[in-house]
Amino acid sequence: MSERRTDTERGPNFDLAVEEAKPKIKEPPLYRVVLINDDYTPMEFVVNILESIFGMERTRATQVMLEVHTKGKGVCGVYNFEIAETKVAQVMGLAQQHQHPLLCTMEES
Ligand code: TYC
């Protein structure tokens, strides 16, 4: 058997340059979890939500609540899809349990 392979043995692409494949992966999208103002949900309830679900200190939670109260909406945090979805569900669940009309949504960031 000879050491050297024939063109046929080397396959159909023997004389073609082979280009590196471009990496196809992208960073996964992030989502802002947003609280919406309303006239009925107590401020204290919103502050408690920001502390318990979004891990904020009381001073920060109060600032964010007041921003939502004055500007109409405000960002509670930025997360990947699954975590953002879970936080929205937790807020909406607690609001429903306490019969407050509080709304929480997510936006791609
Ligand atoms: N506007 C409400 C009030 O005056 C307080 C409030 C703040 C409600 C933020 C919802 O996402 C909210 N009691």
How much of the residues is beta strand, in percent? 15-25%
Biggest pleated-sheet summary? 3 strands, antiparallel
Q: How would you classify the quaternary structure? A: single chain
Which structural class matches the secondary elements? alpha+beta
Q: Spatial order of the strands in the main sheet?
A: 2-1-3
- Ions, cofactors and other bound molecules: L-tyrosinamide
Query: N-to-C SSE series?
Result: HEHHEHE
> Given the C-alpha coordinates, what overall shape results?
elongated
Our count of helices gives 4
Mean pLDDT: 89
End-to-end separation in angstroms reads 63 Å
| Helix proportion range | 40-55%
Structural write-up:
Helix 2 packs across helix 3. The radius of gyration is 27 Å and the shape is elongated. By secondary structure, the protein is of the alpha+beta class. The chain has 4 helices and 3 strands. A 3-stranded antiparallel beta sheet has the order 2-1-3. The structure holds L-tyrosinamide.
